[in-house]
UniProtKB/TrEMBL annotation:
It comes from Halomonas piscis. Transmembrane segments: none annotated. Its cofactor is FAD. Signal peptide: none annotated. Residues 19-156 form the Adaptive response protein AidB N-terminal domain. The keyword Disulfide bond does not apply. This is Acyl-CoA dehydrogenase family protein. InterPro entries: Acyl-CoA_dehydrogenase-like, Acyl-CoA_DH_CS, Acyl-CoA_Oxase/DH_mid-dom, AcylCo_DH-like_C, AcylCo_DH/oxidase_C, AcylCoA_DH/oxidase_NM_dom_sf, AidB_N. The keyword Flavoprotein applies. Residues 182-292 form the Acyl-CoA oxidase/dehydrogenase middle domain. It holds the Pfam family Acyl-CoA_dh_1. Keywords: FAD, Flavoprotein, Oxidoreductase. The lineage of its organism: Bacteria, Pseudomonadati, Pseudomonadota, Gammaproteobacteria, Oceanospirillales.
């Protein structure tokens, strides 16, 4: 009589293992930081990287699941009917914020000791830690982005008294002392069109103004330090949507709005409701009505949009890193699953179609890694060429990483089968979270317009093409890079000679090819004996994609090649 083989009725085999420390597992990140950071800086931050990697792998998933399932709740009034507008978070959210504070991701960037010691490595140090955080939690990554962005504006544009009072609270290593940032930009009428801002600011006294108007998407609505755009010029309060952008943003000023007034009372503003979002549910996004809310003018009147771009541009790099971290986590979860899964009589990684898909996803992950980290490198540089490059690279990286992050995550979910679609698994949360990244901080079309502006108003395109030209000597891909770059250079002259509508319509194909070629040039420049095992296969895939589908037969990559290109040690 047949007996039921209960011991064989398992999803995973005995060879399954998952990472216990994301930093120790991430060979690509280790290699990059060791090469890019000075020996002293790396030695100083290594312990923080190890600790963040372990905490992200061992503790944060359970916290993220709880914070995601039990989203923030808004309490409008207290028992006596008084307006309180209190946002209640699950304890898991507070622990996630505490982990961020304790990690030192802001300490290494903003504390005077670290700034003085490593002035040209601050972003590399900070993003090194926060990228590991992003492997486990995407929702809270938004408030952290807002906090870092607020610190940029405080440091560059606020007076010395506010700097001395607020910056230490940003890089505090305890949650009790930490103040988080927020950005109130978007309005119903305008959306991405900031020039359509209707909120107004009336002078109160000194540098204090009273702000009135509705802000439609306020991320980190419970933030202690918000930067808010409003109009200070009465003749610009009803902007003409057909007028040039520079005229429509000329009346905008920016204000530092704190949750509490100097006397401890609540700064008057009405939280209308919290957004019921598809993803990133752990953090609070809200609609807020400013009701003569007190704000301190930052910089000069009329310079608000120009000042705010410093925060927006950093936010776009954060968006890129969030896309990379979340989609990388999805890919590595799929890889670990497949390595421990037997199907049709053999391990899943031994099936050619599985290896073909992992080859594609691994190449895209590698390309995303080097593109995003190249932007981080440029943030740390004072060089004029690097600044020009960053002006174009920021919207490029934001657009490409967000779009490819969604694709990578979806494909990784499919590789895990039905289990990856069940909410017990991390995949559904990752999938819901990455869906917002093409929208946040400017949708894809806005990024294309920004790339066009950057190409026309800065040397960014010339610097990028110059960077690409350094790769023409590569013995494997150099001749192809040369042909592609010459074609792009010739077409750029034709593109930028077009009238506006034709230029915009034809821009996507140009920038898609430019992005791929720039990614290849960055990887060629980074390649050495230690990392060629993941860079070389990625270059082959990107070139194949650039050449288009062919019917020429290709060799099936071995399992070892696939595992090497994923650069992940569980």
């Amino acid at each position: 009589m047949a007996t039921y083989p209960a011991d064989k009725n398992r999803v995973l085999n005995n060879h399954y293992s998952s990472s216990a420390n994301f930093y120790e597992s991430d060979l690509m990140l280790q290699d990059f930081l060791r090469r890019k950071l000075s020996a002293e800086a790396y030695e100083s931050v290594e312990g923080r990287l190890e600790q963040m990697g372990e905490t992200a792998a061992r503790e944060m998933d359970a916290l993220s699941l709880k914070a995601d399932r039990q989203s923030p709740r808004l309490h409008k009034r207290d028992a006596w009917g008084e307006a309180v507008d209190h946002i209640e978070f699950h304890p898991a959210y507070h622990r996630l914020m505490e982990i961020a504070a304790e990690s030192g991701m802001f300490t290494v960037k903003w504390s005077p000791a670290w700034r003085q010691r490593y002035p040209d490595e601050r972003h590399l140090l900070s993003f090194g830690i926060s990228s590991l955080y992003g492997l486990a939690e995407t929702g809270v990554y938004c408030p952290l982005c807002m906090t870092d962005g607020a610190a940029v504006l405080i440091d560059r544009f606020c007076d010395e008294a506010d700097k001395a009072r607020l910056l230490p609270a940003v890089y505090a290593s305890s949650l009790e002392e930490m103040k988080t940032g927020a950005m109130y930009l978007t309005e119903k009428a305008g959306g991405s069109d900031v020039g359509a801002t209707l909120a107004v600011a009336e002078h109160w006294e000194g540098k204090t103004y009273a702000l009135t108007g509705e802000k439609w998407f306020c991320s980190n609505a419970d933030g202690d330090i918000a930067f808010v755009l409003a109009r200070t010029h009465s003749d610009d309060t009803r902007p003409d949507k057909t007028s040039p952008d520079n005229r429509r943003t000329a009346g905008l000023s920016i204000f530092l709005v704190e949750k509490a007034l100097p006397d401890g009372k609540r700064n008057p503003m009405d939280i209308i409701r919290l957004k019921d979002k598809l993803g990133v549910r752990s953090m609070a996004s809200a609609e807020i009505m400013l009701q003569k809310t007190r704000g301190t003018l930052v910089g000069e009147e009329g310079q608000g949009f120009k000042i705010m771009t410093a925060m927006i541009n950093l936010s776009r790099v954060y968006n890129s890193m969030a896309a990379h971290s979340a989609s990388k986590r999805a890919l590595m979860e799929a890889y670990q699953f497949l390595r421990g899964r037997d199907t049709f009589g053999r391990n899943a990684l031994d099936h050619p179609l599985v290896r073909k898909k992992l080859e594609e996803l691994g190449a895209l992950n590698t390309a995303c890694f080097y593109l995003v980290w190249r932007a981080v490198e440029a943030l740390d540089s004072e060089d004029e060429k690097e600044s020009s490059l960053l002006r174009l690279l920021t919207p490029m990286a934001k657009k490409w990483s967000a779009e490819i992050g969604v694709y990578l995550t979806r494909e990784a979910m499919e590789l895990t089968g039905g289990i990856g679609y069940i909410e017990d698994h991390i995949m559904p949360r990752l999938m819901r979270d990455v869906m917002v990244l093409p929208i946040w901080e400017g949708a894809g079309n806005i990024m294309l317009l920004d790339m066009l502006r950057a190409s026309g108003k800065s040397e960014g395109l010339a610097v990028m093409l110059e960077h690409i030209a350094r790769s023409v000597s590569d013995p494997v891909h150099g001749s192809w890079v040369k042909r592609e770059s010459e074609a792009l250079r010739a077409y750029s002259k034709e593109l930028f000679a077009m009238e506006s509508e034709a230029m915009q319509y034809n821009a996507p194909a140009f920038f898609n090819r430019l992005t791929r070629l720039f990614q290849m040039s960055v990887m060629i420049e980074a390649r050495d004996g230690a990392n060629e095992r993941w860079i070389d296969p990625a270059l082959r895939v990107l070139r194949r994609q650039g050449e288009g589908e062919t019917l020429a037969p290709e060799a099936v990559p071995s399992r070892e090649v696939i595992e090497d290109m994923l650069a992940w040690k569980a």
